[in-house]
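Lecture notes, part 5. Sequence design as translation. It can be helpful to think of inverse folding as translation between two languages: the language of shapes and the language of residues. The source text, in structure tokens, appears below.
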């Protein structure tokens, strides 16, 4: 079989993301084998986009595999979970030692670790690869987060870096680490995305309720914010969404959309795994719970009937520092400070997992590849990259000089905005939890000492003293004598 008859890489699963990745590969000069369980999608791709490059379509999976150069590299673009297992199981029977299966779905990193171990035992490579950027990114350059073996990346790296987004001449793709590292980092990326979106939504809600401004007027505010430190893809599209008018009713688009935000699970996974790792990701957690709350209409209706829905925003002209302009600037600073907290928590979670699983993830490299292609791309990721370049063992992103100064500069505004929201009855769970995290992190004494006392009282769970090493227990029901614990 001549090289013209073989493909350098294959894509199975040709829904929107798979189709666009295949087109991206073809546009970059790769011969791409394509396959889909529904043959019509394969035929449609070739018929509609055959001029993008060289596609080798196959109706049967065996023919698809046979058309690939060795070592074979197959991108699997199917729904995470059982569908992924089914495709991988079918592929494994057709592959040879040294071949590479690349799972580009939003798989749970635990599933990726299990699959990687199973394939490794058969001499195959499983690469859990996070891909961010949506359908546009898949076509024009996503952020790519591959895990797996170094050997597999030696083959895949040149291909993936060539189709990834490029920022300042640097590809938004890097080998994250072994087994499930790539999918873990993608999961945290999505968790940060949840927090970022919720914080932006809270800023909008506080501004609209406080100023009585229209969505179109607030679109102009977000457009202005997108020219400064808050410059990001999400702030950019916020302005676009707020400025959009519904063609059917002539009303602002955001006023005709149901206020129930859905989720596909990566935010929940981020919070669940953070609990396992003992890492407080409060901003991400509150963003996830806010979506859950929005999806309970019966409870919300019952609460409105019981308590009313009126707000009590105070007059911004009658004492708020700087009036309406001061209020808007305070919200901007509160949004930025809260955003720093959410990102810091996400990077802490990556560091904790890297240590727990022996991945050696470079946090600065993650900030580098998130600067382009992905949903959370933002100007301040350059600052994060610089912070980790200056100190690879940074204990918290908040302590890096730039971010410490940014938070110090915004904290009073942040407190005023949260106080305003609480008084008015405007829910700001992410703003508030990020502020509470900041205050807890910097506190010299937390009330956890009392919690430990209570735990020891009812369950003999022991405690440590500040003046004597070791573990202790007080015999609360027997004279309250303190003893050195031996359990």
């Amino acid at each position: 079989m001549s090289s013209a008859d073989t493909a350098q890489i294959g894509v199975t699963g040709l829904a929107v993301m798979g189709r666009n990745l295949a087109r991206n590969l073809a546009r970059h000069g790769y011969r791409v084998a394509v396959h889909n369980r529904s043959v019509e999608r394969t035929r449609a791709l070739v018929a509609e986009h055959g001029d993008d490059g060289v596609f080798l379509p196959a109706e049967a999976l065996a023919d698809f595999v046979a058309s690939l150069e060795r070592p074979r590299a197959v991108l699997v673009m199917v729904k995470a979970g059982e569908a992924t297992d089914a495709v991988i199981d079918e592929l494994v029977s057709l592959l040879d030692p040294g071949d590479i299966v690349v799972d580009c779905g939003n798989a749970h990193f635990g599933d990726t670790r299990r699959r990687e171990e199973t394939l490794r035992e058969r001499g195959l490579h499983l690469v859990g690869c996070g891909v961010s950027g949506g359908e546009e990114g898949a076509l024009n350059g996503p952020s790519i987060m591959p895990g797996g073996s170094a050997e597999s990346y030696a083959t895949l790296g040149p291909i993936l870096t060539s189709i990834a987004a490029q920022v300042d001449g640097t590809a938004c793709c890097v080998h994250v680490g072994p087994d499930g590292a790539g999918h873990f980092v993608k999961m945290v990326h999505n968790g940060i995305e949840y927090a970022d979106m919720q914080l932006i939504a809270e800023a909008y809600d506080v501004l609209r309720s406080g100023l009585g401004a229209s969505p179109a007027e607030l679109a102009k505010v977000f457009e202005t914010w997108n020219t400064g430190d808050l410059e990001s893809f999400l702030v950019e599209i916020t302005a676009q969404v707020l400025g959009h008018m519904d063609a059917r009713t002539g009303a602002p688009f955001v006023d005709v959309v149901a206020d129930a935000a859905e989720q596909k699970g990566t935010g929940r996974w981020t919070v669940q795994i953070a609990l396992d790792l003992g890492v407080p990701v409060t901003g991400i957690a509150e963003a996830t719970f806010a979506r859950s709350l929005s999806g309970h209409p019966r409870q919300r209706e019952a609460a409105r009937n019981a308590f009313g829905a009126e707000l009590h925003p105070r007059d911004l002209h009658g004492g708020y520092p700087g009036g309406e302009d001061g209020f808007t600037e305070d919200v901007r600073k509160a949004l930025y400070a809260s955003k720093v907290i959410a990102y810091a928590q996400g990077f802490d979670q990556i560091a904790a997992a890297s240590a727990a699983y022996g991945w050696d993830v470079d946090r600065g490299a993650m900030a580098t590849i998130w600067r382009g292609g992905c949903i959370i791309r933002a100007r301040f990721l350059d600052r994060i990259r610089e912070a980790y370049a200056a100190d690879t063992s940074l204990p918290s992103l908040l302590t890096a000089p730039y971010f410490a100064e940014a938070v110090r500069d915004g904290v009073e505004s942040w407190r005023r905005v949260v106080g305003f929201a609480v008084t008015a009855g405007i829910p700001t769970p992410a703003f508030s939890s990020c502020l509470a995290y900041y205050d807890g992190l910097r506190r010299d004494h937390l009330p956890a000492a009392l919690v430990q006392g209570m735990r020891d009282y009812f369950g003999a769970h022991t405690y440590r003293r500040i003046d004597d090493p070791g573990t202790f227990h007080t015999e609360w029901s027997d004279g309250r004598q303190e003893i050195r614990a031996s359990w």
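The translated text above is only one of many valid answers, since several sequences can fold into similar shapes. DSSP finds 19 helices and eleven strands in the chain.
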